[in-house]
Amino acid sequence: MKRIKSFMIIGLALALFNCTTQPPKPENCFTLKAEDFQKTIDGKTTNLYFLKNGNIQAAITNYGGRIVGLCTPDKAGNMGDIVLGFSSIDGYLKAKEVFHGALIGRVGNRIAKGKFILDGQEYTLPCNNGVNHLHGGPGGFHNVIWDVKAATDSSIVLTYLSKDGEMGYPGNLNVEVEYLLSSKNEVVMSYKATTDKSTPVNLTNHAFWNLAGEANGTINDHVLTINADAYTAVDSTLIPLAGNEPVEATPFDFRAGKAIGADLAQQAENVQLKNGLGYDHNFALNKPAVGEMSLAATVVEPVSGRKMEIFTQEPALQFYGGNFMDGADTGKSGKTFKFRESLALETQHFPDSPNNTNFTTIILKPGETYQTQSIYKFSVVK
Question: Is the pLDDT score of 23 beyond 50?
Answer without folding.
Answer: no
